[in-house]
Design goal:
- By secondary structure, the protein is mainly beta.
- It is 0% helix and 55% strand.
- The protein has no helices and eleven strands.
- The protein has strands spanning 4-7, 10-13, 18-24, 33-39, 46-52, 57-59, 67-72, 77-82, 91-100, 104-108, 112-117.
- The strands form two sheets. Strands 2, 4, 5, 6, 9, 10 and 11 form a seven-stranded mixed β-sheet that branches. It has a four-stranded antiparallel β-sheet with strand order 1-3-8-7, with no helix packed on it.
- A hairpin with a 6-residue loop joins strand 4 (33-39) and strand 5 (46-52).
- It is globular.
- The N and C termini lie far apart (40 Å).
Length: 118
């Protein structure tokens, strides 16, 4: 059974940095795409960044130039380096992984809270 476990959230002042990590369990799990989404109170979940098994990345416009996604495929782990954080980045951040075998399977972590104070 695949599980995604996030870590690294917390409270940080505006302008600060945090690094999120997400480790996927499952000895035969080979996700094609891994990424991060976030959901602020009262808002819909939105894409933050994704990275494919080939290393192609995609970012939301709101985080371009500030956030960087990376991946260690051998460890089935994805990272999100967040710099120059702003109060509007405050959200619960969710790890996502997608595996395409015969059909597409999506997996989600439970989320980690990032709070950016003024």
């Amino acid at each position: 059974q695949v599980q995604l476990v996030e870590s690294g959230g917390g409270l940080v002042q505006a302008g600060g940095s945090l690094r999120l990590s997400c480790a996927a369990s499952g000895s035969t799990f080979r996700p094609d795409t891994m990424g991060w989404y976030r959901q602020a109170p009262g808002k819909q979940r939105e894409l933050v960044a994704t990275i494919t098994s080939g290393g192609s990345t995609n970012y939301a416009d709101s985080v371009k130039g500030r956030f960087s996604i990376s991946r260690d495929s051998a460890k089935n782990t994805v990272y999100l380096q967040m710099n120059n954080l702003k109060p509007e980045d405050t959200s619960v951040y969710y790890c996502h992984a997608q595996e395409k075998v015969i059909f597409v399977m999506d997996y989600w972590g439970k989320g980690t809270l990032v709070t950016v104070s003024q």
